[in-house]
Amino acid sequence: MIQGNAQRAYLIIDELVRCGVNQFIIAPGFRSAPLALAAISHPSTHVVVHFDERGSAFYALGYGRTTLRPCVWITTSGTAVANGLPAVIESSLDGVPMICLTADRPPELRDTKSNQTIDQIHIFGRYSRWFADLPAPEINDYEPYIRSTIDYAVHKSLYGPVHLNCMFREPLVEMNNEEQSIPNFSWSTQQGPHTRYATPMISTASEDAELMKSILRAHRGLIVAGRFHAHEDGQAISELVQQLDWPLFSDICAPIHSVNHSVNFFDLILRSPSFKATYCPDAILYFGFPPVSKELQTYLSNASAERFILVSPSSVRIDPFHVVTDRIQSSITEFCDLVKNNLTQHQSHTSWLDAWKRADYTVENILSSDLSKEISEPALAWLLSKLMADTAWILGANSMPIRDLQTFYNRSQNSHVRVYANRGASGIDGTLSTAAGISQADPRHGVILIGDLAMLHDINSLSLLKERNVTIIAINNNGGGIFNMLPIALKSEVFEKVLGTPHGYDFENAAKQFEIPYTKVNSCVEFQNVFSSASDLSGPCIIEVKTDRNHNANLHNTLFNRVNEAIHLIAQLPKIDSQDASSQFSTK
Hints:
Blueprint: H1 4-18, E1 23-26, H2 33-41, E2 46-49, H3 53-67, E3 72-75, H4 79-82, H5 85-94, E4 98-104, E5 130-134, H6 143-157, E6 161-167, E7 175-176, E8 179-180, H7 209-216, E9 221-225, H8 231-244, E10 248-250, H9 266-269, H10 273-278, E11 283-287, H11 294-301, E12 307-312, E13 326-329, H12 332-342, E14 346-348, H13 350-370, H14 377-387, E15 393-396, H15 400-408, E16 418-420, H16 431-441, E17 446-451, H17 452-457, E18 470-476, H18 492-500, H19 508-513, E19 518-521, H20 524-534, E20 541-546, H21 549-571, E21 583-585
Parallel strand pairs: 1-2, 1-3, 3-4, 4-6, 5-6, 9-10, 9-11, 11-12, 12-13, 15-16, 15-17, 17-18, 18-20, 19-20
Antiparallel strand pairs: 7-8, 14-21
Helix pairs in contact: 1-2, 1-6, 3-5, 3-16, 8-12, 13-21, 14-15, 14-20
């Protein structure tokens, strides 16, 4: 009969699997050995082991971000637990499923200066959706308590991270003739969890007639797709956009395909003061969390729209600029269906949409002309949008790579590609390990666009990518390139010391250490050729691109000015007549 620590670990892992959770990432440690041995022994689990606690936690984040199902992060006691905090914060702020299963010392060793014993109670603070401190096992555990606790943890983890802190006394594993042995678990054959939780269906009240009227009477309506996770929500927004005939601004991380109404380069268009002043929306429908684009956030905060309707299934406050007039907690798909069902007759104002599409076309022509001449950070984002036919996803690192993808990546090309980023807290840590978790969930070819500081931050996690079908594009500008975009960059001596942070490293030797093919490129043509060859490989490779921070800042400003001049001419055209209604149609 299995007793004590092994029995407790068996119940936890068995119930997780019964709840449909079967992906585990383990950071080695002896206090967590009962959990690790039980996880690897179950026939239905998939277990990955990584020596870096922080990296392994981000792996769990990446898996949850892609599948919308929790990956279980198992780690030992002490500072190992604290290393999970950055990933837990990101998981919490972006609503990504995650389960932290941490080992701990028994209560009699707490507050005694016992080795490797820290206070792990609520160590993740308010970032954890739920916390349980599981007592040290008894000879015979009360099984319903353990199973029902796991069931509730899995339920809560669908909306962000949960933390189960598991106390274990020594001996941690069973001994057989003075040798450690893995218990021969007899796993449960029962299907489904001990306690089932129905997902709450939160929908908009159909009696809110005034809300629908405000949508129907809008002459300059705008739909913004911020960050959200579900593909079906993206499809619902696309269908609503077509029926409303409003322009769509889609955040680079929104899982939404490009449609005829998409304004792909709104981030650049909105850098034109005259265009922004001329084309202001009178109604905004916003879905999800805040966008990557700071230009878009500024535009929305100053739009003074009659109605700013923000829809998200999350209950958290989403209003950084305090302009939301209607906050609706609802399934995005349900809300879109409700609006479509109420659009019995709706006015289409094509001049408003045409102005945005004309500006979008103008920007696309400028980028096509200016970003094919020399290799640069904006050129990489532009070129990638043309090279991703055989690629399923791309992860953009903070700070500049994801911003450049938002600004210069043409989503009308290869719109099937899913773009990911850790924008909950927007840290540069854990990028490579997050990508490893994404690749575990989606093993098709993926791309990591990453800066040198983010690469150095997580270089241990190259070990997680050794057998992954990923192309790592390392942009090396020898420091923090985003800071060269700020006025302080002009004060070169102080800037270089405290913000520029030059390091002088490249990644060729790191690639050798982790046995990953490596190439350095110096031109657009060379990059396209190397990338095309890399995407045909079954394993990883690193493509390093050296850039200059000052030149990059100047290039961005040159492009911004070129676009501003061209867009300014469009803004000088006659203003849209708010009463111009060119067509009517029925949506029933």
